[in-house]
């Protein structure tokens, strides 16, 4: 006879306590409506704890119960969970979490990611970020890689306050890290089509005269990983380098969070670019990857960004 949901959850919890050797208080159950609300009931496993932070893994207990109803034994469910926890530990995520309170140790893992400031107003409320137009440059920490997915999360204001560092210096450090971790690259469409290993062209070397396209077709700017690559235009020295190669100012069309098209402002018209952006977002960009509907501009004379 199958156990009911409450009995199942308690048995899984007890088996996890036995298997991990953790104190009972480190493995606990919380229903989704309990404060703070979560998406679904969860069994939480506190994997590590610092003076001001904890690394907690949340298991969706309703999903686990469905596995049980489908015929998976409680023993096998716990066994799989332990394997996942071990893989997570090997990924470096838990090790990095221990250093969240120590700025000098966590500094190399800080980076910047772009979000739409208006759409994510609630999400950004307690986060550390700068705003340029309607684009938020958000401070993240890279925790590690788990199952080929990079794990990261936003730095909260109270965490940054504990570092007792000038937040502008922290931001500049994160921008430099981002540039080092994912270098800016120009992508040529013909190479993208025919070379699956193509990671873009390096245009930042001042000793070379990289051939940017100066006609209305534009240039695709991203990072070598082409993930969250629109940030490239805000990385140190990138906008100035582009303006040097372009011989003047340029427009930016953010076709997604992953890339931005760079157009010579002497050849392209902002209103036409806006129409192209609108069509691109509607036809080719998933809603959660839309960054902005605005057209941005970089002035070579002032070194400033503007938007409309």
Which characteristics define this entry?
alpha+beta, six-stranded antiparallel beta sheet, 3 domains
Architecture overview:
- This protein has about 300 residues and is α+β, with helices and mostly antiparallel strands.
- The protein has three domains: about 5-90, no CATH class; about 105-180, no CATH class; about 185-305, no CATH class.
- It has helices at about 5-20, 60-70, 75-90, 95, 105, 120-125, 155-165, 165-180, 190-195, 240-245, 270-285, and strands at about 25-30, 40-50, 55-60, 110-115, 130, 135-145, 150-155, 185, 220-225, 250-255, 260-265, 295-300, 305.
- The strands form three sheets. A six-stranded antiparallel beta sheet has the order 8-9-11-10-12-13, with helices on both faces. Strands 4, 5, 6 and 7 form a four-stranded antiparallel beta sheet that branches. Strands 1-2-3 form a three-stranded antiparallel beta sheet.
- Helix 1 (about 5-20) packs across helix 3 (about 75-90).
- The N and C termini lie far apart (about 65 Å).
- The mean pLDDT is about 90.
- Give the terminus-to-terminus CA distance: 65 Å
Runs with pLDDT <50, length 5+? none
Mean pLDDT across all residues, rounded? 88
User: How much strand content do the residues show?
Assistant: 15-25%
Largest sheet: 6 strands, antiparallel
Output the structural class: alpha+beta
Helix content: 25-40%
Radius of gyration: 23 Å
Number of helices: 11
**Strand adjacency order, main sheet:** 8-9-11-10-12-13
